[in-house]
Amino acid sequence: MTLLKIEDLTIAFGTAAPVVDGVSIGVDDGEIVALVGESGSGKSLTARTILGLLPDGADATGSVTLGDTQLIGANEALLGSVRGVRAAMIFQEPQTALNPVQKIGWQITQALQAHGRISKSEARSRAIELLELVEIPDAASRVDWYPHQLSGGQKQRVVIALALSGEPDLLIADEPTTALDVTVQAEILDLLQRLRKTRGTAILLITHNMGVVAEIADSVVVMREGRVLERQPVDRLFSDPSHQYTRDLLDAVPRLHEVRDRLHEKGSTEVLRLSDVSVVYPGRFGAASFTAIEGVDLTLSAGEVVGLVGESGSGKTTLGRLALGLVPATTGRVELLGATVGHLRASELRALRRGVALVHQDPAASLDPRRSVGQSIGEPLVVHKVATGAEVRSRTKQLLESVRLPADFVDRRPSELSGGQRQRVALARALALSPKLLVADEPTSALDVSVQAHVLELFAELREEFGFACLFVSHDLAVVDSVADRVVVLRRGTVVEEGRAAEVFRNPHHEYTRHLIESAPAAPVRAG
Amino acid sequence: MTVLDEPVRTRTRWSGLTSGQGLVGVIIVGVIALAGIFAPLLAPYDPLEQISGANLLAPNADHWLGTDQVNRDVLSRVLYGIRIDLEIAFVAVPIGAIIGGLVGLVSTLHPAADTAAQRIFDVVLAFPALILAITLAAIIGPGAFTVGVVIVLAELPIFGRLIRTSVLKVREQPYVEAAEVIGAGKLFVLRTHVLPNSLEPIGVQVALSLSLAVFVESAMSFIGIGVRPPEPSLGSIISDSIPNLDINAAFAVGPLVVVALLVLGFLLIAQGIGRERRS
């Protein structure tokens, strides 16, 4: 039976063109429907309409019915009787969805009391039941824990428990696993699937990750620019997408195990050598010291791309910073371009940095908002006095062209660019002095898949052109597989496996690597 | 190759002051400031001239706000008073902002400097503004200069702490790290990235401080430790009017309205700038 019926939903802000335009979606009892699309496709707004959570100034028309309740134009009292009880929301970021100063049991009790009269002891035992339902171990004692005592995955389980407290028929999950590591993501997806099976809860899943879709959805709705492009059962979508955009989107998803014949000539000169390096952050205010990196050996030859993979806390970002001399090694040696970092004076280190570059994860934060694109890209040239005045400008324009951006972008501000364009600008700045070593720290994880595909393509072309060696840090195995010659798998600051990318991903030796690969949700390859 | 994603919309820098609250604030402050600047042209009488036979007159066609206890035209005194008030505010607040900002900046460079600066700020903040004003007036004597010094001192910790937190925050931004990786020196990073971005919140604070400065002048002159008589200032005119309220009420209304409007105008400007920064 149809549980949720959205018909001809249109959402507009003022008189501007509608951001959601004539969307119709149905969700049956116990069905998992995935709403996929890139940023700005209107998928979150569509889902928020169900709970009356639209931002101020948004005007929704059309029809959204849950059971037989019309939710468009519903008053607060009616919405209050729906929220949490008949439909509940799971948010993306468990860190901010939970109140940090209250015990998790208290938070669940609050939700239970909002749904109806319940005594204190009943609420507590119900809270423990809910925590058991979402598979929190030792629920009876953890009910008195604070959110910060739980891991990211457990926090998200608590958020799900909160959503289940009113026994809703429909769960709306807005990117529920995006903030989590792959292995934790796999567990949460498992949990959602089990909940559907045991309780018959329907789930409307909003995601941009095609792998997640393939893993748990029954049917898929593809949205773009506020419109529904197609709706298909999940198998058919992957085997036979009817819309060109869907095909492009699926092709843009990087996959493991894709056959590639890419083997770069390995240069003989070493660009970077780490010998038995450890990084320990000293404990402060009585806290224990923290070992971020322990006994790591790593070499990088000229022109080689090494992928650093691992989950959060594995030390992969620290290792990237270490290579650039941004983080000092506690013990061991870091040799960068033939010089031992750590024995250098500040001025020598600055001169050495002419040969290295860093690309950050978030291009919105790594470009100075007050400086023009041209000023940012030209900065390395100015700092090292390679060029002056008009020469800087013409070099900057050339660099913009090599990252496939129009040269007249020089006078724009970062805020006038999209995420993908900004990351191209960051790449152009990194390449301004033709560095020998580039450290790329999750350079595509803030981008939509189709944009990511373009940036990765550009990365490969630039590598041919500039011939840099690269330390490519990423949590996304498929992305690393598509760019790296060699892979280093990190876990809790130590290297657990290292080898040629093809070898490691196809024939992992270490159990942890195998676990990582199995956890990564994979979108099936489209036939033909 | 085409770039799929669309750019974000742009905004202009001063749009906080060209619409809504900000614009209202600019108009209020602008009109009053113009009245003060052109006081010599606008004032019907000399502010110090004692007009014979015009003692505490009620408002009339010749004296729109009436006359005071020593036969001077109140409207002329208010116009000249605006002049003095704004002169003090627009000189003292920038001086306080610059000195405070520099101290705040220096304090971010070294932990010892930080401790020293923070303790000095604590001491200044420990004095209520009025006690500070009376103490200073006792030491260096009352007058417009003393008012300025009090305002500068009161603004020091405000701007010092503002710049300090702002610099510490900006220094952690990835674009600062990006500049360091490029090989830029400390001074270069400070000049091109840290300072320009740290100065962002200063606009709001300057507007707030200007409103505070107007208030400080009025309060100090009102209790007799500010601008010396017979010079007119908004505070001293209000002070003169109090014993004579029963004879000429308009005497007090004029300067009170101007002080209230100035404070309101500066607050609206501060809100306008603040709102623009947040959006």
Observed structural traits:
heterodimer; A: 528 residues; alpha/beta; six-stranded mixed beta sheet; 20 strands; B: 279 residues; MetI-like fold
Please give a structural write-up:
The complex is a heterodimer of chains A (528) and B (279). Chain A is an alpha/beta fold and 528 residues long. Helix content of chain A is 38%, strand content 25%. Chain B is mainly α. Chain B has a single domain, classed as Orthogonal Bundle (MetI-like fold). The longest helix of chain B has 34 residues, at 74-107. Chain B is elongated. At the A-B interface, helix 13, strand 16, helix 15, helix 17 and helix 18 of A face helix 7 and helix 8 of B.
What's the CATH H-level homologous superfamily of chain B? MetI-like
**Strand order across the largest sheet of chain A:** 6-7-8-3-9-10
The tally of structural domains of chain B comes to: 1
- H/E series of chain B, N to C? HHHHHHHHHHH
Number of helices of chain A: 21
Biggest beta-sheet profile of chain B = none
CATH topology of chain B: MetI-like fold
Give me the number of helical elements of chain B.
11
Which whole number gives the mean pLDDT of chain A?
A: 87
Largest interface (CB < 8 Å) = A-B, 45 and 26 residues
In one word, what is the shape of chain B? Answer: elongated
For the biggest sheet of chain A, the summary is: 6 strands, mixed
Distance between the termini of chain B: 33 Å
Helical amount of chain A: 25-40%
